[in-house]
Amino acid sequence: MTTVALGLRENWPQFGLLVLINAFVGGMVGLERTVVPLIGAEQFGIASTTIVVSFIVSFGLVKAFSNLVSGHLADLWGRKRVLVIGWLFGLPVPLMIMWAPRWEWVVAANALLGINQGLAWSMTVIMKIDLVGPKSRGLAIGINEFAGYVAVGVTAFLTGYLASRYGLRPVPFYLGIGYAILGFGLSILLVRDTRSHVALEMAGCKEPDGTIGFREVFSLTSWRDKNLFAASQAGLVNNLNDGMSWGIFPLFFISFGLGVERIGVLKAIYPTAWGILQLVTGPLSDRLGRKGLIVAGMWVQAAGLLLTALTRTFGWWFAGSLMLGIGTAMVYPSLIAAVSDASSPAWRARSLSVYRFWRDLGYAIGALAAGLVADRFGFPWAIGSIGVVTFLSGLVVALVMEEALGSRQ
User: Fold this and answer.
1) Over the stretch 374-396, which tens digit does the pLDDT of each residue have?
2) What is the pLDDT of residues 104-155, one digit of tens each?
3) Structural domains in the chain?
4) What is the Cβ-side half-sphere exposure of residue 312, based on CA atoms within 13 angstroms?
5) Distance of alpha carbon 264 from the chain centroid
6) How far is CA 91 from the centre of its chain?
7) pTM of the entire structure?
8) Are 62 and 114 in contact (CB under 8 A)?
9) Of 78, 133, 333, 365, whose CA is between 20 and 30 Å from 124?
């Protein structure tokens, strides 16, 4: 019988496996960062920016609601089963985009991708937190998000490179077929469920509260608990600017004559910096606290967006994208860890699912809002207005959130 223990060192084989699987999950999103907006504009001849970014709206809405149910399903069915189901929805995505005869197929594929990401990425986060226990949450989340977003960045670069050599379709999407098969196979064959680790952590809690209902968890995470509210609104705005950059940046850059391969570089540097630096910012939040990193990170993101909107050359755009990546690296693991700090182990998975619901709803809101602004006023206004919203969100965290270092002792 296997002994259950909490800690990264005690659970490193399963932890490492989940890191690898989350890299494949991230790679599935990276397939679309450079190429898909250009497919809409160039291959399908869509003139409206709002319609082009509709694939991100479908992705964000479906992913948000998938996140919302993922924690409940994880408690009901087990983490592994939900992870496998997530990969089942991801398998057809690259094939649908490769051979889509109409734009609606791409939108539908992104709805399936939203389910894949909402279930699979949520499970890799929750399972790592289950494994390591309360003292290393920031480190665990930093490693998880490092793997996912470095894969996003590398794949965004590779798809840009392949598209510049072989065209926008189908070659860049061959990567996605490999990611989906490997992620699905490893999840079925090697992953073990982590509910026994949750039970062990709950046994050490002074005030276990497993009877709390989902409605109460939703209200606590959304508005009643000020730390959870601050984290949820910051998460929404963080992905609001990410959704905007996903859809608007390639169209903005190409409007100035930038080639697909160089667009791929710009689209890669942002998630790559975001991914790599989380190896530092995740554990740093365990030592210094979450709030300062979140506030500073939101403001660095805002500065990067405004720099991008106000400049017209590759060098400045590179700097803006790098700042966006640095700021997001400061924010992303700190927000997830802050939600974990403020939640009981008994309802942590559900609280994280509610936080991720609000966070990933930002994809849909950001893409739609930016598309409407871009169609009316132009790309720089769309980018700059999201930058201002990002700054204001950081101000909300500065005024509302309280540090909770004591919960990690």
Assistant:
1) 999 999 999 999 999 999 999 99
2) 999 999 999 999 999 999 999 889 988 987 777 788 888 888 999 899 999 9
3) 17-189+212-408 (1.20.1250.20)
4) 3
5) 19
6) 19
7) 0.87
8) yes
9) 365
